[in-house]
Design goal:
Number of domains: 1
Shape: globular
Helix content: 10-25%
Order of helices and strands: HHEEEHEEEE
Largest sheet: 7 strands, mixed
CATH architecture: 2-Layer Sandwich
Oligomer: single chain
CATH topology: STM4215-like
Number of strands: 7
Amino acid sequence: MPVIARPNLGSAVRARLLQFPEITSLVSSAAGWTDGRTEPRVGSQMHDKWHMPTRAIRLRRTGGALVEQDYSAGLWRSRIDLFCYGGHPHEAQQLIDVVLPALCPTQDTAAGFEIGGCRVGLIEPEADGFADIDPTTSWPTAWVPLSILWVAA
């Protein structure tokens, strides 16, 4: 039986965020890059050319025990921390207030999507997002942990 690597969930969530013009317009400006680029500042790492603090989104895959895993069926529940940055805490909070409804829609809206070999069924915040100053970087940040139910497509 061949070994097949699991798809990259972080890349799938990033691609999903880039599908929303409401989000990309907030994180795409030449002023947010030190070299004048205008591509969206959304990634799994801080880019060395991001002019921080500015509006940007970082997705960090995290570990931890989660229930509802079914390895035989390929059903996974994973965690991703969502960080939104801004020029001040209010701006970071405003960004997370736009991003969360896009990733975690209400019951009236379809939540699932399939991108890059990942079929995401459900994304739920595990806590309320809150804005603060990152103690390491001193940048205004809004943060929320997300629980994601998904399968390899």
